Fold this protein.
Amino acid sequence: MRANAPGLLQRATEWLKAQAIFASRRPLTAIVTLALVYLAWIGVERIVGWALLEATWNAADRTGCNPDGACWAFIVNRLPQFLFGFYPVEARWRAIFPLAAPLVFMTLVALPVFPHGRIVAFGGFCLYPLVAVLLLDGRLLGLEVVSTEMWGGLTLTMLIFTISFVLAFPIAIGLALARTSKMPVFRLLATGFIEFWRGLPLVAILFMSVIMLPLFLPPGVDSPRLLLAMIGITFFASAYLAEVVRGGLNGIDGRRRPSASASGRCKPISSSRKCFGRRCPSSLTRQSHFSRTRPMS
């Protein structure tokens, strides 16, 4: 650190000199910059004062909060409900796994310090739907049965989207293989499915599956709204993931395609299982590397 200190000081001095030269050449731009910095400082100061310094963290109701600051007491008091919904208090230990497991698995994938983190995360995601539903329901494990109406909060959100993503991944691979197939029937069906679900907003899919579809069921038929929501999100996610996988398939180096075809590993969809020998692992590796290097994707 001491050896790098002179270098940092020199770079800082050079940067200040460059800014001074720029300000001397364009004084109006320098004045506008200083004014914006001053306004930003005032805004940050007021936000920090309202959100942290003058905020109220513990209070019985709104009347006990400081009117000049944020009232975080509502968030603190309702935090268990935000996390677990109306799940019974004595059984909330069962909801910890569905809530925390996806975060743990993603940490194992993102951090390279774990030697077999990806394998563990892959197995964990494959077992997550079964284990999470068994714990939350409790019927087959001999625990207290908790109906799906009591599930809620961040736990339900994590459960729905994790299960939908796990189920959508194999569907997406099949759709990508079908869309890149030379058979017109499979290609047209896969294209129609992908374009249909990609053309619908997720809010409309949830509205149709949870609100509208139960209206068309016969009287007295109980509609599993949670299952319908999972099915809609699964189809929606599989359509987008299929395009990601198809991009990986199309991005394989052209010199490797003839070798894969000659070895019988990339024939049409009738023998698509052989494609997993060479082409599909390469495409998935390319796309997973792209997702790690560009998080916004």
